[in-house]
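Bumping my old thread because nobody answered last time. Still need a sequence for this structure:
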């Protein structure tokens, strides 16, 4: 193998793409979808999936929806917040974590992260005001937030603690599975550990939160089995149609049997890659607390830019040119940076030409150009990321390690 980087004309570590599928979709999944079609869409796979997923987590209620974004929105709507209420969240997450709260006329307030890439409880508490209504704990890349302090803060200030588990199926904080620690939790089934091209889930043990959530996902209609069963057919409050497709639910129910295998494979691969580059001293993996379980939807490193003659974007581009699809600093917003740098908040471009809800009931509107989360900007701005696949084999893992070592060696020498 040439030591010249492929991005500079050298021979890449790997010329062929990874062969394995993102998930093991087989005839069992095809049959699950076909069963729904044969039934004329009358087989209730949605309810079966809700019950099975909730039981897997030891939670009373599951509410299946059509995406992870709608799941978070449903969690927020279940609180029935007032316009202008504030919700504390990390700026290093998908826009799906905050779109719903803005659609519910709430205001995101951004707190800093630590080297786990998840919320720093001390900074969360410093951001609480008289208008704070909730905290959204985003378990980023599969790594759980520090849940005990966040739960204590939420209880002390009478706040709702929402868990965003979109990227963290079966992750654990100190032996407790995420999605079971806060008041209500949201999941995504797009390209995540458990996936069927879409879908999401809300979990909660709180009957009042379930009651509003199950109505919200279905235009607040009095369906059988819901809290308004038996009432006249009408829309009882403002709510969208977020119902999951029955075929999606059927495939998710089929895929659920494979989830443990997917996660075990990703954890094994991630740990092997981390061990394979640990001696370099310039790639620091996302920190996992002792006693926690990271399920590695994404494997992420922070690069030592003080020792490497490149940016994180340069490093990720060079590794990608070697045939290993790394990306640069999260999130999927290119070089815009954390969410508070995104145009739809900075401009802002939310509700026509107004600044609503950022100015609702305030003397001055929230100005995200003034937002700062310095620790996260330092750490996350140096991040490189690999979307993990359960199909990675030994050759794949070895190629990832060789590419990282080759690029690190070049920029160290440079």
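Sorry it took so long. Here it is:
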């Amino acid at each position: 193998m040439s030591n010249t980087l492929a991005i500079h004309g050298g021979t890449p570590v790997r010329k062929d793409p990874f062969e394995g599928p993102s998930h093991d979709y087989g005839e069992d999944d095809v049959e699950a979808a076909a069963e729904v079609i044969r039934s004329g869409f009358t087989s209730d796979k949605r309810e079966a999936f809700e019950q099975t997923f909730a039981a897997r987590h030891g939670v009373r209620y599951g509410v299946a929806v059509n995406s992870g974004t709608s799941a978070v929105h449903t969690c927020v709507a279940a609180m029935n917040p007032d316009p202008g209420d504030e919700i504390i969240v990390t700026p290093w997450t998908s826009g799906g974590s905050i779109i719903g709260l803005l659609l519910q006329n709430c205001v995101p307030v951004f707190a800093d992260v630590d080297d786990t890439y998840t919320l720093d409880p001390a900074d969360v508490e410093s951001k609480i005001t008289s208008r704070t209504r909730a905290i959204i704990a985003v378990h980023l890349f599969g790594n759980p937030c520090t849940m005990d302090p966040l739960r204590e803060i939420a209880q002390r200030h009478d706040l709702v603690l929402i868990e965003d588990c979109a990227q963290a199926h079966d992750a654990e904080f100190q032996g407790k599975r995420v999605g079971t620690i806060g008041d209500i939790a949201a999941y995504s089934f797009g390209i995540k550990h458990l996936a069927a091209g879409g879908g999401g889930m809300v979990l909660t043990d709180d009957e009042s939160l379930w009651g509003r959530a199950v109505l919200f996902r279905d235009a607040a209609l009095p369906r059988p089995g819901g809290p308004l069963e038996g009432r006249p057919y009408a829309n009882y409050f403002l709510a969208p149609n977020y119902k999951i497709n029955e075929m999606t639910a059927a495939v998710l129910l089929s895929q659920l049997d494979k989830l443990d295998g997917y996660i075990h494979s990703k954890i094994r691969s991630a740990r092997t890659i981390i061990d394979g580059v640990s001696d370099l001293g310039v790639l620091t993996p996302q920190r996992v607390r002792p006693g926690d379980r990271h399920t590695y939807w994404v494997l992420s490193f922070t690069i030592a830019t003080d020792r490497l003659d490149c940016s994180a974007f340069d490093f990720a581009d060079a590794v990608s040119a070697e045939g290993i699809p790394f990306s640069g600093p999260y999130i999927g917003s290119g070089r815009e940076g954390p969410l508070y740098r995104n145009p739809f908040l900075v401009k802002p471009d939310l509700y026509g030409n107004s600044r609503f809800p950022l100015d609702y009931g305030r003397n001055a509107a929230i100005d995200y150009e003034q937002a700062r989360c310095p620790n996260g900007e330092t750490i996350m701005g140096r991040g490189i990321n690999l979307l993990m696949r359960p199909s990675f084999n030994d050759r794949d893992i070895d190629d990832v390690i060789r590419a990282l070592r080759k690029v690190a060696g070049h920029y160290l020498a440079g």
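The two ends are 19 Å apart (CA to CA). Let me know if any region looks off to you.
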